[in-house]
Amino acid sequence: MESQVNLKGFWYADWSFPIFVAFLSAGIFAGTHMYYVHHIGAFNDVAIVAMLQAGIEGGGYGAAAAFGASFLFARVLEGSLVGILDIGGSLQTGLGIGVPALMLGAGFVTPISNFPLSLLTGAVLGLLVGYAVIGLKKFTVGKANSTFGSDVMMGAGNQSGRFLGPLIVLSACGASIPIGLGSIIGAAIFYVWKKPVAGGAILGAMILGAIFPITLE
């Protein structure tokens, strides 16, 4: 009986799902703002960010917009069917690269160049994505009650993250010596703990980066 009550609580309710997506999207969109203004901070693989960089350098935003938008569309449909919204494809690539590329290509620069507005824009877009997943679920698997749907929350969609650790360490070493050392130490600690190396590298870089910050000109 208690388990049934818990399934109706905040952490499992459909109405709370868009809230989580909104918070995630706000941070990811703000990360894109950081990259657009300061050239650091994007929440994506190097190859995907390179598409956005090509547009920033004048090569056009078509590739980034098409790639990101297609991922967003596919992952929203997938999320409503399988109950797991892929953060990497839908939010990081779709809202983090595809939507900003569409905006920049259309001349809407302010939502990306202004930090508070980037947070607000990301949150609103996240709400729309969350409600889209919930709405589509009600017309598909939700009718048959054949799955928990969005109740299982969100997760990464593939195992490629395990190979990002060395890339993160190399990027951190290129940023500064203290940040590089922090990234190496964090990666080593997480490796000993048998945890994802990428997470340790990021946390280590963030900690020493806060102690020895890089001056942005």
Structure explained in plain terms:
The protein has eleven helices and two strands, in the order ααααβααααβααα. By secondary structure, the chain is an all-alpha fold. The chain has a two-stranded parallel sheet with strand order 1-2. It is globular. The termini are far apart. 38% of the residues are buried.
User: In terms of quaternary structure, what is this?
Assistant: single chain
Question: Percentage of helical residues?
Answer: over 70%
- As a percent range, the share of strand residues is under 5%
| Low-confidence spans | 144-160
Global geometry: globular
Q: What order do the SSEs take from the amino end to the carboxyl end, as H and E?
A: HHHHEHHHHEHHH
Q: Overall mean pLDDT score?
A: 79
Q: What's the β-strand tally?
A: 2
Helix-strand makeup class:
mainly alpha
- Biggest sheet descriptor: 2 strands, parallel
- How are strands sequenced across the largest beta sheet? 1-2
Tally of DSSP helical segments: 11
From the alpha carbons, calculate the radius of gyration and give it in angstroms. 19 Å
Report a brief summary of the structure.
With 217 residues, this protein is mostly helical. It has helices at 2-7, 17-38, 46-59, 62-82, 87-106, 110-113, 115-139, 141-144, 164-175, 177-192, 197-211, and strands at 85-86, 154-155. The longest helix has 25 residues, at 115-139.
